[in-house]
Amino acid sequence: MGITIQNITGNTAVVIWPKMASCVDSFYSIMYHPNWNSMPSSYSRKSFQKEERVPTSRSSFVVENLTPLTRYLMCVTCQSANPSSDQCRVFNTLERDPASASNTKKELALGIWLTSSILLLIIAAILLYGCLHLLCCRRHQRLQAQSRTSKQDYGEAWTKSVAYTSEEFSRQRQQMQDTEEKHPSGIQLATIIENPSACNEPVMPTSKSQERVPVAQQCSVIN
Question: Transmembrane residues, as ranges (predicted)?
Answer without folding.
Answer: 110-132
